[in-house]
User: What shape does this take?
Amino acid sequence: MRAGSARDGQAEPPGDGRPEKADSAVVRDALGVGVAVGLSGFAFGVTSAGSGLSVLQTCALSLLVFTGASQFALVGAIAAGGNPLTAAAGAFFLGVRNSFYGLRLSQLLALPRVVRPFAAHWVIDETTAVSLAQPTRRSARIGFTVTGLTLYVLWNLTTLLGALGAEAIGDTDAWGLDAAGPAVFLALLAPMLRTSTERAVAGIAVILGLGLLPVLPAGVPVLVAALSAPAVLYAEGRRAARRAPGKNPQEDPGKADGRQGEGR
Assistant: This one.
C-alpha cells in the first residue's frame, strides 16, 4: 500500500491530531463491521426471494449492485406492487450517495489508477465509515480493504443462503427480516450525524419518507425524501447570509452611521 502511494507521487497525509493506530487494531475494527453487516445479507436474500425474485436474480443484485440500502429499496418496492422502473429509480438515487463517498475516498486513499475501478465497487457506507475513522492513509487503506473484502464475501454468501432458505422459513413478512438492512444502515449512520444541519436533513427525510408512504406509489417517497438535503442547505445558506457582517446595520456600527463610514 505504501508502494502504491509512492508510485502516485503522493506523500502520506499529515495526521489530524488523532494518535496513530496499530494495523491489528484497524483489522479488528474492520472485521467487526464487515462480519456484523455481512451477516445481514441473509435477510436480504430471504426478503428478495419472498418478493418474487429468483435465486439467480437475488444473487446478481448482491454481486453487481452491492449496496444494501438500494437492494432493500428495490425489492421492497417490488414486493409492495410498485412499478419496476420506479423501484429501480429509487434504488438508483439511493446508490448515488456512493459517488460522493468516492470523491472523498479518492483523495484519502490515493490508490493506483489500475486498482481504482475495482475499489470503486466497494465504495459503500461501511467502507467509507471505517476509512474516514482512521488517522493515516495507511490505516485508511487497510480499513477499506479489510472491510470491503469481508463484507463482499459474507454478504454474497449469506444472500445465497437466504434465498435458498426462503422456502423453509415460510412467510418472510412475519419474521420482519426486511427491516434488518435499514436497521443496520441507521446504526452506522446515527453516530455520523454530529451537526445540527446533518440531524435536520435526517429528520426531515424520515418525516417525508414515512409521511408520504401511504399516499404515494412504492419507491417514490424515497425520491421525495432526498429533497431534504438541498432544502436544509438552502435554508442554512440564507441564514448564514443574513448573519454575515455588513448585512445588518446593528451588527456593523460603521454601516449604521453613514458619516462615520465616509470618514473611514
Q: What stands out?
A: Confidence is low (pLDDT under 50) at residues 1-12, 259-264. The two ends are 58 Å apart (CA to CA).
